[in-house]
What does this fold into?
Amino acid sequence: MTHSTIPHTMRIAGLALAAGTVLATGPAMAQEESKGTIELGYVEWSSEVASTNVIAAVLEQAGYDVELTSLSAAAMWQAVSTGDADAIVAAWLPTTHEDYLERVNDSVENLGPNLQGTKLGLIVPEYTDVEAIDELNANAGMFNDKIVGIDPGAGLMSLTEDVIEEYELDLNLQSGSGATMTAALQSAIRNEEDIVVTGWTPHWMLARWDLKYLEDPKNVYGGAEHISTVVRQDLKGDMPEAYAILDAFSWTPEQMGEVMLMNQDEEADPTETARTWVENHPDVVAEWLPAS
It folds into this structure.
C-alpha cells in the first residue's frame, strides 16, 4: 500500500502502477501476482483515514495493489469524477458533500452508505455553560470570539458559514485542520478553558473527552447523515471483484471508533492499524468479500 499527498489545486495524475507481489494482511493471503492497482482518494479526517485504510487492507487481502492519496474534499470528488481515483469511501451525504455530488453526479456511481449515524455540529466541553448555538453571541468572550474549525475546503466549514449567517453570530470561523482543531480542544480542556469547535460523529475526541453538541434550533446542520462509497464510472466492468468489495463495505460507528482510537497512539501507523483490525475481525471482513 502506498500513500501520497497532493495539493487541492492539482488533480491526481500519473500515479505509478505497482508491480510484483501484493502486500498482504497475513501469510495465507499472499498473492504471486497483483490483480491490478486500486487508487483511493480520501480527506485527512480521522474517520476517513480509518475507513480508507481498512478498505485498502481488505482490497490488498483480495490481491490488489492499493494506492492512497490524501486530498482536499473538492479535489477528492474531482479525482473520482475524472477517473484519476477509482473510489472514495468518504462521501458525507446528503448534506455535507451535497454540492460536490451535484457537480459530478453524471460521472460517478454512488454505491450507498458504508456507515450510518453520522452527525455534524458545534461542540464544546461538557463543563461549558452554553447549551445552544443561539447562546453564543451572548457568551462570545468565553470563546475569544472564535469558532475553531478544520480545513477550509471541508463541507463542514461551508455549513458552519451558513450557521454563522443564519444565527447572525459575531464569532469568527478559524480554519486549520482536523489535527489543529483537536490540539486546540485538548489544550483548552487541559486548562479548563471554554472553546467551541466544529465537530462530527464518528470522531475519537468524543470517546476521549466529555463533550457535547450545541443544540441547533434552526437545524442548519441538518439531521443525521451517512458516509457513502462512490466509485468512478466503469469500475464495475473494469474490476468487478474490487467493485463488489467496495459495494459490500459497511460497518458501524463503534467499529470505526475502534480503529480511530488505535490510531491515536503516538507510535500508530494507520496502515498497520487497519491491517491489525482486519486480521482481528475476520467475520466482519468476510461479509465484504465475494463468495468463493
In short: Confidence is low (pLDDT under 50) at residues 7-31. The chain has eleven helices and ten strands. The radius of gyration is 20 Å.
